[in-house]
């Protein structure tokens, strides 16, 4: 990883760049899944909401140009990771791990019980990556209701139910909701 990489809060004027990063990163996911679907980016309203809550961070290169980002929201005493993307030129260089480490610190500062997310079960840079940093798969009765709702929403929007998984990284207190 480049020594010149820094994580910091995003700025409003960077939202178009974050969309570019998300669309660029989608190419890696599409290749891994063997799909040719058109990429869809988060609406700027979701990014703006994360920004206003202080939950939109970027990884920036030595010229302070964003190369990755993480957007989150607080849900039921957890920090839910809405999106994590790294531009293809910066993938496999520790950028995602660094952004997730920053998210853990944000959750601890806010005294939240856990980080939560939903992701693809099989793609190596999705569930296996999150497991490598301590996330655990939750299902059945162990899955918080809000994560079940997230998964159900993803499935209703066309995602494969066999591939979707909810994950939790406990930070010392039980998750609710």
In words, what does this structure look like?
The chain has five helices and seven strands, in the order βααβββαβαβαβ. β4, α3 and β5 form a beta-alpha-beta unit. It is globular. The termini are far apart.
Descriptors:
177 residues; alpha+beta; seven-stranded mixed β-sheet
Summarize the structure.
The protein is α+β, with helices and mostly antiparallel strands. It has helices at residues 15-33, 44-52, 95-109, 127-132, 145-156, and strands at 6-9, 56-60, 66-75, 78-86, 114-120, 136-138, 164-170.
Total count of helical runs of at least 4 residues: 5
Strand order within the widest beta sheet: 1-2-3-4-5-7-6
Total strands: 7
User: How helix-rich are the residues, as a percent range?
Assistant: 25-40%
Distance N to C terminus: 37 Å
> Averaging pLDDT over every residue, what do you get?
88
Provide the succession of SSEs: EHHEEEHEHEHE
Main beta sheet: strand number and arrangement?
A: 7 strands, mixed
Topology:
Layout: E1 6-9, H1 15-33, H2 44-52, E2 56-60, E3 66-75, E4 78-86, H3 95-109, E5 114-120, H4 127-132, E6 136-138, H5 145-156, E7 164-170
Parallel strand pairs: 4-5
Antiparallel strand pairs: 1-2, 2-3, 3-4, 5-7, 6-7
